[in-house]
């Protein structure tokens, strides 16, 4: 039954994006089906957004992204790929469906060129492209971080209760094995993302976690296995890519298969052992010390700022710079203290959406969108509320951010008072973060603090939006009867998805 439902969803989406002939690429992230399109004008946005399974649509410079939600997207994507392949086999020549609005060839070309230029201008900046590469390195690791994090939390509970002592060591090994080798996976993904041979990047990164490095002295002191962590692995793999490309350019083809991998691993490995591990270790330590200092000395203020500015960072695509920081903190301390604070941004969105629901009693379209999107919002999937409700309205997006700031301030205050509430993985937020909570307090205390932060975000987002989120003109424009669902306009220029990014 579930398989038929997923196939039906894929079948409903395909004609609305221009058919199989209009698809150039298919991929998916944690919540979005990401499509490359030949002709953007063939997409029927209104009908697509009205599908029951579609939570929203987002565009960036290179892909058209359909928000389906976690779990669903992983099941719909293979069905979609099967339908596209079947259609191409039946009709090898691309036959896109006609444009709903009749346009001349010149008008169509001009429209497409303007859209493409606008998207590139907004998203293809060097900083955003670089940050997107960094995100692409870490995003594939999120499922393992989540799974191992939940197992670690469950194992900790069993240990505290004294239950199943014969099983807990095995669970500890399962939960920590991935983190012990995460540098290798970072090296593989980095090399792949920067255009090198993945296995060479992994081989160089593996040096960092090899126990034998303890016998090596660098800068006057012995190295420690794992020193430099994911940042060292990132730097080592990037260096390996450049060495490999240099070798491919200058080494004769007859010797390439032997010389290139040897020189790549040797040169990059020596630089890693005698330089990068030490330097990356110092940077990693500084990141951990700074996070601890920031929250211990100004936790309430820092939490307020982080909780309030996170969603604007998401809209600018700058949130992706936080992913290596989260991963470094998890590697060092076992949890990241920043994620529970940033997750409060989603609580502000939920509270704001509830206020919009009450302030627009006559707009059945907006209220219907909110009712369908709120359950996902409580679970930390924020795209439907952001792109379907608060951001298009304007002012409610700002008041939602303020609501998240109050929630972040409360969690930050707890850290300032000496406690800590963190997450053992990145990606989930909202209620979905409860199983991943960790810190220096009992689980009961951490759950209470995080829940108090969520409630504060809900209430603050609701009250501020209810009283200050609407001007008279905004109410006059939107508090009107709507016989049919209002079209959900795609948000152009939105950043590519990252687990810990828009999913708040």
From TrEMBL:
Q: Where is the PTS EIIB type-1 domain?
A: 7-90
Q: Fetch the SUPFAM superfamilies from UniProt.
A: Glucose permease domain IIB
- What sequence ranges are listed for the domain PTS EIIC type-1? 132-484
Task: Name the residues that span the membrane.
Answer: 137-158, 170-188, 195-214, 226-243, 255-280, 300-323, 335-358, 443-468
The entry's localization annotation reads:
Cell membrane
Q: Which domain of life is it from?
A: Bacteria
Q: Where is the active site?
A: 29
Question: Mind listing the UniProt keywords for this protein, alphabetically?
Answer: Cell membrane, Kinase, Membrane, Phosphotransferase system, Sugar transport, Transferase, Transmembrane, Transmembrane helix, Transport
- One Pfam family per UniProt: PTS_EIIB
* CDD domains registered for this protein in UniProt: PTS_IIB_glc
Q: What is this protein called?
A: PTS transporter subunit EIIC
Q: What is the lineage of its organism?
A: Bacteria, Bacillati, Actinomycetota, Actinomycetes, Kitasatosporales
């Amino acid at each position: 039954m579930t398989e038929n439902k997923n196939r039906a969803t894929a079948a409903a989406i395909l004609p609305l994006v221009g058919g199989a002939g209009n698809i150039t690429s298919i991929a998916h992230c944690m919540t979005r089906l990401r499509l490359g399109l030949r002709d953007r004008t063939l997409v029927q946005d209104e009908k697509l957004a009205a599908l029951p399974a579609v939570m929203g649509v987002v565009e960036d410079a290179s892909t058209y992204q359909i928000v389906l939600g976690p779990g669903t997207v992983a099941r719909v994507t293979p069905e979609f790929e099967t339908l596209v392949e079947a259609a191409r086999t039946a009709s090898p020549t691309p036959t896109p469906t006609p444009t709903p609005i009749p346009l001349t060839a010149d008008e169509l070309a001009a429209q497409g060129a303007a859209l493409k230029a606008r998207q590139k201008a907004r998203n293809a900046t060097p900083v955003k492209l670089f940050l997107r590469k960094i995100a692409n390195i870490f995003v594939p690791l999120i499922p393992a971080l989540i799974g191992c994090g939940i197992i670690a939390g469950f194992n900790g509970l069993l240990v505290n209760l004294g239950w199943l002592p014969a099983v807990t060591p095995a669970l500890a090994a399962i939960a920590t094995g991935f983190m012990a080798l995460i540098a290798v996976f970072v090296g593989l993904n980095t090399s792949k993302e920067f255009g090198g041979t993945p296995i060479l990047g992994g081989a160089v990164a593996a040096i960092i976690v090899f126990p034998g490095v303890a016998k090596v002295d660098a800068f006057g002191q012995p190295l420690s296995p794992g020193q430099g962590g994911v940042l060292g692995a990132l730097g080592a793999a990037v260096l390996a890519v450049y060495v490999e490309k240099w070798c491919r350019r200058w080494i004769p083809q007859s010797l390439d298969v032997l010389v290139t991998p040897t020189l790549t691993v040797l040169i990059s490995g020596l630089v890693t052992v005698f330089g990068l591990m030490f330097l990356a270790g110092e940077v990693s330590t500084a990141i951990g010390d700074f996070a601890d200092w920031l929250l211990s000395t100004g936790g309430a203020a820092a939490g307020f700022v982080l909780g309030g500015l996170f969603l604007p960072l998401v809209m600018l695509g700058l949130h992706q710079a936080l992913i290596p920081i989260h991963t470094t903190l998890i590697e060092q301390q076992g949890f990241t203290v920043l994620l529970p604070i940033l997750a409060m941004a989603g609580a502000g969105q939920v509270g704001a959406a509830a206020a919009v629901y009450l302030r627009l009693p006559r707009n059945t379209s907006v209220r219907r969108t909110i009712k369908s999107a709120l359950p996902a919002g409580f679970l930390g999937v924020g795209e439907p509320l952001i792109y379907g409700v608060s951001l298009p309205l304007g002012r409610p997006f700002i008041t939602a951010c303020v609501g998240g700031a109050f929630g972040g301030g409360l969690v930050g205050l707890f850290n300032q008072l000496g406690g800590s509430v963190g997450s053992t993985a990145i990606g989930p937020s909202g209620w979905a973060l409860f199983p991943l909570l960790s810190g220096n307090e009992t689980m009961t205390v951490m759950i209470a603090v995080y829940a108090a932060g969520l409630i504060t975000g809900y209430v603050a987002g609701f009250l501020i939006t209810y009283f200050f989120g609407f001007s008279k003109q905004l109410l006059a424009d939107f508090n009107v009867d709507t016989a049919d669902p209002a079209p959900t306009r795609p948000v152009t220029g939105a950043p590519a998805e990252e687990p810990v990014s828009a999913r708040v």
